[in-house]
Amino acid sequence: MSRHAFPPEEVAGVYRAIRERRDMRHFLPTPIEPAQLARFLDAAHRAPSVGLMQPWRFIRIADRGLRERIHAHVEEERLLTAVALEQRADDFMRLKVEGILGCAEVLVVGLMDEREPYVFGRRTMPQMDLASASCAIQNFWLAARAEGIGVGWVSLFDPQRVRSLCGMPPGSQPIAILCVGHVEAFYRAPMLEEEGWDRRRPLSGMLYEDSWGTAPDRA
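The structure assignment produced for this chain is given below.
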Protein backbone atom coordinates (compact mmCIF):
# COMPACT_ATOMS: atom_id res chain seq x y z
CA MET A 1 0.00 0.00 0.00
CA SER A 2 1.21 3.51 -0.75
CA ARG A 3 2.79 5.42 2.12
CA HIS A 4 0.38 8.24 1.24
CA ALA A 5 -2.70 6.12 1.94
CA PHE A 6 -5.15 7.04 4.70
CA PRO A 7 -5.45 4.73 7.71
CA PRO A 8 -7.45 1.58 6.81
CA GLU A 9 -10.59 2.66 8.71
CA GLU A 10 -10.64 5.99 6.86
CA VAL A 11 -10.17 4.26 3.51
CA ALA A 12 -13.08 1.99 4.39
CA GLY A 13 -15.21 5.03 5.22
CA VAL A 14 -14.55 6.62 1.84
CA TYR A 15 -15.52 3.45 -0.02
CA ARG A 16 -18.57 2.96 2.20
CA ALA A 17 -19.84 6.46 1.40
CA ILE A 18 -19.40 5.76 -2.32
CA ARG A 19 -21.09 2.36 -2.07
CA GLU A 20 -24.04 3.51 0.06
CA ARG A 21 -24.73 6.88 -1.55
CA ARG A 22 -28.32 7.02 -2.80
CA ASP A 23 -30.39 9.40 -4.90
CA MET A 24 -33.06 10.03 -2.27
CA ARG A 25 -36.71 10.96 -2.83
CA HIS A 26 -38.22 10.40 0.63
CA PHE A 27 -37.31 12.86 3.38
CA LEU A 28 -38.17 13.87 6.92
CA PRO A 29 -38.93 17.56 7.60
CA THR A 30 -36.35 17.77 10.40
CA PRO A 31 -34.16 20.86 9.83
CA ILE A 32 -30.47 20.55 9.03
CA GLU A 33 -28.01 22.47 11.19
CA PRO A 34 -26.59 25.46 9.25
CA ALA A 35 -23.05 24.37 10.11
CA GLN A 36 -23.75 20.95 8.62
CA LEU A 37 -25.02 22.39 5.35
CA ALA A 38 -21.97 24.67 5.31
CA ARG A 39 -19.70 21.61 5.57
CA PHE A 40 -21.39 19.97 2.60
CA LEU A 41 -21.02 23.15 0.54
CA ASP A 42 -17.37 23.44 1.53
CA ALA A 43 -16.83 19.84 0.39
CA ALA A 44 -18.47 20.73 -2.93
CA HIS A 45 -16.28 23.80 -3.32
CA ARG A 46 -13.15 21.64 -2.90
CA ALA A 47 -13.96 19.67 -6.05
CA PRO A 48 -11.53 19.62 -8.97
CA SER A 49 -12.32 21.88 -11.91
CA VAL A 50 -10.81 22.17 -15.36
CA GLY A 51 -8.38 25.09 -15.48
CA LEU A 52 -9.40 25.82 -11.86
CA MET A 53 -12.39 27.70 -13.28
CA GLN A 54 -14.70 26.70 -10.38
CA PRO A 55 -17.86 27.10 -12.49
CA TRP A 56 -20.34 26.01 -9.81
CA ARG A 57 -22.80 28.38 -8.14
CA PHE A 58 -25.29 27.40 -5.41
CA ILE A 59 -28.64 29.05 -4.70
CA ARG A 60 -30.27 28.09 -1.40
CA ILE A 61 -34.04 28.28 -1.79
CA ALA A 62 -35.20 29.84 1.48
CA ASP A 63 -38.52 31.28 0.27
CA ARG A 64 -41.34 28.74 0.57
CA GLY A 65 -43.27 30.29 -2.28
CA LEU A 66 -40.30 29.98 -4.61
CA ARG A 67 -39.84 26.36 -3.54
CA GLU A 68 -43.49 25.68 -4.41
CA ARG A 69 -43.12 27.36 -7.81
CA ILE A 70 -40.05 25.24 -8.56
CA HIS A 71 -41.98 22.14 -7.50
CA ALA A 72 -44.92 23.07 -9.73
CA HIS A 73 -42.58 23.44 -12.71
CA VAL A 74 -40.91 20.08 -11.98
CA GLU A 75 -44.36 18.49 -11.87
CA GLU A 76 -45.13 19.97 -15.30
CA GLU A 77 -41.92 18.48 -16.65
CA ARG A 78 -42.69 15.13 -15.01
CA LEU A 79 -45.93 14.92 -17.01
CA LEU A 80 -44.16 15.89 -20.24
CA THR A 81 -41.48 13.28 -19.56
CA ALA A 82 -44.19 10.63 -19.15
CA VAL A 83 -45.57 11.52 -22.57
CA ALA A 84 -42.09 11.29 -24.11
CA LEU A 85 -41.55 7.85 -22.55
CA GLU A 86 -44.57 6.45 -24.44
CA GLN A 87 -44.77 2.73 -23.55
CA ARG A 88 -43.11 3.26 -20.18
CA ALA A 89 -45.27 6.24 -19.19
CA ASP A 90 -47.34 4.33 -16.63
CA ASP A 91 -44.24 2.82 -15.01
CA PHE A 92 -42.65 6.24 -14.84
CA MET A 93 -45.70 7.90 -13.28
CA ARG A 94 -45.62 5.36 -10.45
CA LEU A 95 -42.12 6.50 -9.48
CA LYS A 96 -41.45 9.21 -6.92
CA VAL A 97 -39.01 11.43 -8.76
CA GLU A 98 -38.40 14.29 -6.31
CA GLY A 99 -38.77 15.40 -2.70
CA ILE A 100 -38.80 19.16 -3.13
CA LEU A 101 -41.68 19.93 -0.77
CA GLY A 102 -40.73 17.45 1.94
CA CYS A 103 -36.97 17.93 2.40
CA ALA A 104 -35.21 20.29 4.77
CA GLU A 105 -33.24 22.21 2.14
CA VAL A 106 -33.45 22.83 -1.60
CA LEU A 107 -30.44 24.05 -3.56
CA VAL A 108 -30.30 25.01 -7.22
CA VAL A 109 -26.86 24.34 -8.67
CA GLY A 110 -25.83 26.24 -11.76
CA LEU A 111 -22.92 26.96 -14.04
CA MET A 112 -21.74 30.55 -13.81
CA ASP A 113 -22.21 33.04 -16.62
CA GLU A 114 -19.32 34.37 -18.74
CA ARG A 115 -17.61 30.96 -19.01
CA GLU A 116 -16.27 31.59 -22.52
CA PRO A 117 -12.92 33.12 -21.43
CA TYR A 118 -12.01 29.86 -19.67
CA VAL A 119 -10.23 28.00 -22.48
CA PHE A 120 -7.75 25.92 -20.45
CA GLY A 121 -8.97 22.33 -20.85
CA ARG A 122 -12.11 23.43 -22.70
CA ARG A 123 -10.91 24.40 -26.17
CA THR A 124 -12.17 21.16 -27.72
CA MET A 125 -14.41 20.06 -24.84
CA PRO A 126 -16.35 23.08 -23.53
CA GLN A 127 -18.65 20.71 -21.61
CA MET A 128 -15.89 20.22 -19.05
CA ASP A 129 -17.49 23.03 -17.07
CA LEU A 130 -20.45 20.71 -16.53
CA ALA A 131 -18.11 17.84 -15.64
CA SER A 132 -16.41 20.05 -13.05
CA ALA A 133 -19.71 21.10 -11.46
CA SER A 134 -20.81 17.46 -11.39
CA CYS A 135 -17.70 16.66 -9.35
CA ALA A 136 -18.76 19.37 -6.89
CA ILE A 137 -22.22 17.83 -6.57
CA GLN A 138 -20.71 14.39 -6.00
CA ASN A 139 -18.51 15.82 -3.23
CA PHE A 140 -21.60 17.35 -1.62
CA TRP A 141 -23.45 14.03 -1.95
CA LEU A 142 -20.69 11.93 -0.40
CA ALA A 143 -20.13 14.35 2.47
CA ALA A 144 -23.86 14.33 3.21
CA ARG A 145 -24.03 10.52 3.08
CA ALA A 146 -21.10 10.23 5.46
CA GLU A 147 -23.06 12.37 7.95
CA GLY A 148 -26.29 10.42 7.42
CA ILE A 149 -28.08 13.08 5.36
CA GLY A 150 -29.92 12.25 2.14
CA VAL A 151 -29.55 14.08 -1.16
CA GLY A 152 -31.63 13.79 -4.30
CA TRP A 153 -30.60 15.24 -7.67
CA VAL A 154 -33.62 16.45 -9.65
CA SER A 155 -33.09 17.12 -13.36
CA LEU A 156 -36.70 17.25 -14.54
CA PHE A 157 -36.86 20.93 -15.42
CA ASP A 158 -36.48 23.43 -18.23
CA PRO A 159 -33.20 25.32 -17.60
CA GLN A 160 -34.62 28.56 -18.98
CA ARG A 161 -37.59 28.36 -16.62
CA VAL A 162 -35.48 27.66 -13.54
CA ARG A 163 -33.05 30.40 -14.57
CA SER A 164 -35.96 32.83 -14.64
CA LEU A 165 -37.46 31.61 -11.36
CA CYS A 166 -34.12 32.03 -9.57
CA GLY A 167 -33.09 35.33 -11.15
CA MET A 168 -29.98 33.86 -12.75
CA PRO A 169 -28.09 35.98 -15.30
CA PRO A 170 -28.05 35.28 -19.05
CA GLY A 171 -25.38 32.73 -19.91
CA SER A 172 -25.69 30.90 -16.61
CA GLN A 173 -27.01 27.35 -16.70
CA PRO A 174 -28.96 25.57 -13.95
CA ILE A 175 -27.96 21.91 -13.91
CA ALA A 176 -29.49 20.46 -10.74
CA ILE A 177 -32.11 20.92 -8.08
CA LEU A 178 -30.79 19.24 -4.94
CA CYS A 179 -33.18 18.02 -2.25
CA VAL A 180 -31.31 17.69 1.04
CA GLY A 181 -32.53 16.35 4.35
CA HIS A 182 -32.83 13.74 7.04
CA VAL A 183 -34.32 10.40 5.97
CA GLU A 184 -36.07 7.55 7.75
CA ALA A 185 -33.72 5.12 6.02
CA PHE A 186 -31.47 4.97 2.99
CA TYR A 187 -32.61 2.73 0.15
CA ARG A 188 -30.90 -0.65 0.24
CA ALA A 189 -30.18 -0.29 -3.48
CA PRO A 190 -30.72 2.57 -5.92
CA MET A 191 -34.44 3.33 -5.95
CA LEU A 192 -34.79 2.72 -9.68
CA GLU A 193 -33.33 -0.74 -9.16
CA GLU A 194 -35.71 -1.42 -6.29
CA GLU A 195 -38.64 -0.28 -8.44
CA GLY A 196 -37.56 -2.44 -11.38
CA TRP A 197 -36.93 0.48 -13.72
CA ASP A 198 -33.43 -0.73 -14.60
CA ARG A 199 -30.47 -2.49 -13.02
CA ARG A 200 -26.78 -1.84 -12.49
CA ARG A 201 -24.80 -3.51 -15.23
CA PRO A 202 -21.51 -5.27 -14.46
CA LEU A 203 -18.32 -3.26 -14.81
CA SER A 204 -16.82 -6.06 -16.90
CA GLY A 205 -19.06 -5.09 -19.80
CA MET A 206 -17.93 -1.45 -19.63
CA LEU A 207 -14.18 -1.91 -19.39
CA TYR A 208 -12.17 -2.05 -22.62
CA GLU A 209 -8.49 -2.20 -23.46
CA ASP A 210 -6.78 -0.15 -26.18
CA SER A 211 -9.91 0.07 -28.37
CA TRP A 212 -13.65 0.34 -27.88
CA GLY A 213 -15.28 -3.05 -27.37
CA THR A 214 -12.03 -4.91 -26.79
CA ALA A 215 -12.15 -6.74 -23.47
CA PRO A 216 -9.01 -6.57 -21.31
CA ASP A 217 -6.56 -9.44 -21.71
CA ARG A 218 -6.85 -11.38 -18.45
CA ALA A 219 -4.19 -13.92 -19.31
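Interim note for the steering committee: Helices lie at 8-20, 34-45, 64-85, 89-93, 128-146, 159-165, 191-194. The longest strand covers residues 173-181.
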